[in-house]
Amino acid sequence: MKLLTHKLNHSSINLSVAAVLGIALMGCGTSSSKDPLVFETKAVLGESLYSDVNLSLNRTQSCATCHNPEVGFIDNRLDADGQTSAVSLGDDGISLGDRNTPTASYARFSPDFHIGTKQRFNSQQPDYVGELGGQFVDGRETDLQGQAEGPPTNPIEMGMADKASVVARIQENEDYVNAFEFLYGEDIFANSDEAYSAMAESIAVFEKTDEFSPFDSKYDRFLKGEYLYDPLSKSAAGKALFFSQQFTNCATCHQLHPNSHPQETFSSYEYHNIGVPVNDTVRLSNGKPANFVDQGLLDNEAVSENTARGKFKTPTLRNVAVTGPYMHNGVFRELKTVMEFYDHFLTNSEHVTNPETGESWGIPEVEDNVASTELEDGRKLSSSDIEGLVCFLRTLTDARYEHLIEENGIACLE
After folding, report:
1. In terms of Cα–Cα distance, which of 313, 325, 399 is closest to 74?
2. What is the pTM of this model?
3. Residue 223 — pLDDT band, cuts 50, 70, 90?
4. Which of 71, 167, 199, 356 is the 20 to 30 A CA-CA neighbour of 146?
5. Long-range contact list for 360-364, CB < 8 A, 24+ apart?
């Protein structure tokens, strides 16, 4: 992966003079005999830490393992059936999660977790009032820095014993030590908690760069006048349906800004229980007890009301065509399946069975809190409508990932 490197030009900056004058060149540090720096900005440092397997117990896993930059920032490792695994494997080579690892692309736009009101666009539903934003699918971390602090010491993820152990691994790398002291102060390693926070902050700074959110999909190029949807194409029909206030409910939860906003992330960051069934295959593999129920938003310590049970944060639809499997537990493999799942809530729907299994959709894991008002809004979709929506969603793929799109029986013919 190409580093975001911006080396200091030592021929044009006299470091010794700068030190005498007390001029801080950058960050919190000053120049020293440890220069030249390999990682001279927080973003560049964060990029290296993001991909460093040495920060896991067995030195096999990094942030990039489960959020691979080459494939839309998801975990593309395969399961026993040769398909992208619905959940991630831990550094110990044994532990499996229970939730699908979400893409890290465009994560910087999720607001800090809070209770608030969200205006809805192209929707017949009233504005949303409730929990919003945060990181992880249950919003349990307020922001990206908090999210980055979680995996290294999670026993079923990177598996490090504690923050001090992670910091000790960082100190094994002299270039890291120089960068941390330069960017965060020479005494940064005097306190392991502060050094650990600095690590997480630098990763968060990297995740806020355009590497994660370039806004260069066909949809973005359309907004800039660089791409045209063929008015007779499935993509154009799907685009019209997506933003329709009358025919679909897509925009109710997947539109953040008014139409044609240049930084539309296609998520409202609201929380809903949409009736997703248990992923039985995952549960058989990860050893969860038979009576286990994923509480969703209720697992967030900032939330205590039982009405939060089974709710999960609305994901971005950016890169959705290449970031399957889908739903918080990876229970569906194809976008077309997701569309039919939504449609089965509508009266007289023909989509009464899961096309991937040939069986009924299954009962919701949490049945008492399903967002029926939102799910039952709109009209029944035809097969052509569903294909159009899938084709439109494919145009939300970043340019670097367009080659990863698989037709899976739907030829958009743009």
Report:
1. 325
2. 0.91
3. very high
4. 71
5. 361/277, 362/277, 362/278, 363/277, 364/273, 364/275, 364/276, 364/277, 364/310
CA dihedral 129, 146, 330, 93 (to 10 degrees): -160
Paired tokens of 215: 């806004």
User: What kind of architecture, by CATH, is found in domain 15-74+144-207?
Assistant: Orthogonal Bundle (1.10)
Q: What is the length of the chain?
A: 414
pLDDT at residue 258 is higher than 60: yes
Asked if 281 and 86 touch (Cβ cutoff 8 Å), the reply is yes
Whole-angstrom Cα Rg for the chain: 23
Tell me which of 414 and 342 has the higher pLDDT: 342
Q: What percent of the chain has pLDDT over 70?
A: 92
Averaged confidence pLDDT in the chain: 92
C-alpha span between 6 and 9 (Å, rounded)? 9
Do residues 404 and 103 lie in contact, with contact meaning Cβ atoms separated by under 8 Å? no
5 has pLDDT over 70: no
Q: Which residues pair with 130 in a beta bridge?
A: 116
DSSP string, 381-404: PPHHHHHHHHHHHHTTS-GGGGGG
Give me the numbers of helices (H) and strands (E) for the chain, helices first please: 14, 6
Structure tokens at 293: 């129920």
| CATH class of the region 107-136+215-404 | mainly alpha
Phi/psi for 105 (5° steps) reads -70, 135
> What is the DSSP-derived secondary structure letter of residue 365?
S
- Helix H or strand E encompassing 178: helix 174-184
Residue 24 has pLDDT above 50, yes or no: no
Catalogue the E-assigned strands of 56-148: 114-118, 128-132
Whether 70 and 212 have beta carbons less than 8 Å apart is answered as: no
Whether 275 contacts 296, CB under 8 Å: no
Helix (H, G, I), strand (E, B) or coil at 74: strand
Answer whether residue 60 shows pLDDT above 60: yes
Tokens at 325, concatenated: 């499997």
Write out pLDDT tens, residues 159-191: 999 999 999 999 999 999 999 999 999 999 999
Domain ranges of the chain: 15-74+144-207, 107-136+215-404
